[in-house]
Amino acid sequence: MEKERYFQAETEENAETKTDEATAAITQLGQTNIPQMEPDTNIHCLTIVGQIEGHVQLPPQNKTTKYEHVIPQIVAIEQNPKIEGLLVILNTVGGDVEAGLAIAEMLASLSKPTVSVVLGGGHSIGVPIAVSCNYSFITETATMTIHPIRLTGLVIGVPQTFEYLDKMQERVVRFVTKHSNISEEKFKELMFSKGNLTRDIGTNVIGPDAVQYGLIDEVGGVSQAMAKLRQLIEMKKGGEGKMIQ
Amino acid sequence: MILYTVMPEHLLFPVDAAEYEKKKMVYYDGIPFLVQIVENGEYEIVQNLSTNPYHFLNAKYAPGARFPISAATS
Questions:
Q1: Helices (H), chain B
Q2: Residues of B in contact with A62 (CB under 8 A)
Q3: Is residue B32 part of a domain?
Q4: A59-108: per-residue pLDDT in tens?
Q5: How many domains is chain B built from?
Q6: Cα dihedral sign for A54, A55, A56, A60?
Q7: Is the residue at B37 inside a domain?
Q8: Do A60 and B20 touch (CB under 8 A)?
Q9: Closest CA to B10 of A103, A60, A138
């Protein structure tokens, strides 16, 4: 009743536009307006979802993260003085190695504090992205699949193809071991272990195990991640001009 | 039918090139969006690509909302 009267009073003033907006919101979204908030925020949030798309555009029904969208955003975050920190949320199945490493390198070289949270899955090339941030979290139920890189499509059957693949894999291994506490031996052991995945080589690491192996820093969700990010921002402000970390 | 192959599905069953044209990225109010064209000359928001979390609280920018093609930039 209260609401009805409120709407009626409003529609009298500005009958057409108000009812139009309200019905549009209901037909399109099934919801009415959410209160608007302050547009400025010092923490931005980047979501890495679905497949990480490489040089070949995936069919439109695939949910993808495109590097041509993500990279300019990271540049904008670096440029904007109002943005003080970045939260990276991952729920990805992996995808293109080059594109994934490009995003990971961009995040690793960002001068502002970054914290990542793996929700659901941070598989395959999602692993370097998760570890590229200053601090990483994984939720209790989230998983990360670590496996050797694969090549699809036409391949020339020459030793050089294998060498090329091996080099590419080495880039991933080096990046992960450089940006996390996992040792190269342990990471390779997980990558090449047999009997864990159905008819495949590799390991599916669950939340607390990823922390135990040193791949991820801590088990936690969004509140812990935000608290950590604020702490890193404060540390950066306090230690301006001094070396941090 | 079960196909035992290492080839990705999109290589085996390529979709029509016109499918790719349906979705595109545009800027609206300076915010990047993934949109699809709907009848009557409007774009329908498929995904909000902004990194600003407050842009997700405004119903105007939520998936399913529509805006005229003329309002989009680049």
A1: 9-12, 17-22
A2: 10
A3: yes
A4: 888 899 999 999 999 999 999 999 999 999 999 999 999 999 999 999 99
A5: 1
A6: positive
A7: yes
A8: yes
A9: A60
In a domain, B31, yes or no: yes
Inter-chain contact B8–A57, Cβ cutoff 8 Å? no
pLDDT-flagged residues of chain B (< 70): none
Q: Tell me the residue range of the domain where B32 lies.
A: 9-71
Identity of the residue in B6, B51, B59 whose CB atom sits nearest the CB atom of A25? B59
Tens-place pLDDT, residues A206-238: 999 999 999 999 999 999 999 999 999 999 998
- Taking only the tens place, the pLDDT of each residue in A1-12 is 455 555 554 445
Instruction: Give chain A positions within 8 Å (CB) of B44.
Output: 28
Are the beta carbons of A28 and B64 separated by less than 8 Å? yes
Say yes or no: domain A43-238 is CATH 3.90.226.10: yes
Which residue in A44, A123, A147, A179 is the catalytic one?
A147
The residue behind tokens 């693949």 is A165
**Could you say which DSSP state residue A1 is in?**
-
Among residues A44, A116, A123, A124, which one is catalytic? A124
pTM for the full predicted model: 0.82
ipTM: 0.84
Paired residues of A204 in beta bridges = A145
What are the boundaries of each domain within chain A? 1-36, 43-238
